[in-house]
Write a structure and sequence with these properties.
about 325 residues; about 70% helix; about 0% strand
């Protein structure tokens, strides 16, 4: 057992466990993601009841269900699931590869949390680039109005983007995403390792238990998401550029030309607090998803290793 994540001699084990983790986490937490995205894309102040469409978490859930039906809370779920499976697979697989590489460098043994940060940052970059087109499609499906739908589904949205924009549109917002994911993913793994060690220190657990993963994952998700939130907001706003026609009925459309312009205009129009619009549902989602992400991964890996051990014993 390593400091945080379990080890396995089979890289495929980490890929399968990561895919399972991504799938289950996305299914459970998708409604919070929908609410978060609606907040992020709303230019009007969230708490101003007179000019804003959405002004609280409970009100947003209620209004979405009333206007669009309960299934709208899983709007964009298909590309989101594809995104989560690809991301989970790539993240944990590459993290395992990076950590194995770092173990071959004895001078890094004393910097265990730093190596976890670096491995987590690298794993996040790999997973983000691989899954980013799905993220763009998911964001647009969530962002569009039911009264003026532009896309009929995943395949139709891909076709429209290629036909009316360009393949480069699938990667709008990639730069701020990578700038966000380097510290975010790195902090997730570093904080998870730190808190899981503290949990074991002050409890009777010697290994990574279910409760350890849940507590450590929640804390890691909450702290890491808060640290990089303005970049997450910028990413969402950049992903809908050129999609004005699909945002009818949601208030003013936020137009910008790049990351710095997005941050500048957000502060100018909405104030510094605008950079953290949608933070509350994002924190709730981050705590829940990170806890589920790591816990499902750890437990899936235990199951996979048990099945592999059983299979090996029967074949001998």
């Amino acid at each position: 057992m390593s400091v945080s994540l379990q080890t396995s001699d089979h890289n495929a084990d980490h890929a399968i466990a990561g895919a399972s983790s991504g799938f289950l986490t996305r299914f459970i937490c998708q409604p919070l993601d929908v609410v978060k995205i609606r907040f992020q894309l709303q230019v009007e102040p969230i708490k101003d009841h007179h000019v804003s469409k959405y002004h609280s978490i409970a009100q947003t859930f209620s209004l979405i269900i009333k206007e669009e039906g309960i299934l709208a809370l899983w709007k964009g779920h298909v590309p989101a699931q594809i995104l989560s499976v690809i991301y989970g697979t790539g993240q944990f697989y590459s993290y395992n590869i990076f950590m194995k590489a770092f173990k071959n460098l004895p001078q890094l043994e004393e910097w265990k949390f730093s190596t976890k940060f670096l491995a987590g940052a690298g794993a996040g970059c790999v997973a983000t680039v691989a899954s980013f087109p799905c993220d763009t499609i998911r964001t647009r499906l969530v962002a569009q109005s039911n009264k003026h739908p532009i896309y009929k589904g995943v395949i139709h949205s891909c076709s429209c983007i290629i036909q009316h924009e360009s393949p480069r549109a699938f990667f709008n917002g990639l730069v701020p995403t990578l700038l966000q994911i380097i510290p975010h993913s790195g902090l997730q793994f570093a904080f998870y390792g730190l808190f899981s060690d503290l949990y074991k220190k002050y409890s009777s657990d010697t290994n990574i238990s279910f409760y350890n993963s849940m507590v450590s994952g929640s804390a890691a998700g909450l702290l890491s998401k808060t640290a990089v939130y303005p970049l997450d907001l910028s990413r969402k706003r950049l992903q809908i550029q050129g999609f004005e026609h699909g945002r009818k009925g949601f208030g003013s459309f936020f137009s910008c030309t790049g990351l710095l312009d997005c941050l500048r205009l957000t502060v100018k129009v909405e104030g510094l607090r605008g950079l953290f619009k949608g933070l509350a549902p994002s924190q709730i989602k981050a705590a829940a998803t990170t806890a589920l992400h790591f816990t499902t991964y750890e437990q899936s890996l235990v199951l996979i290793k048990a099945i592999r051990k059983l299979y090996d014993s029967e074949t001998k």
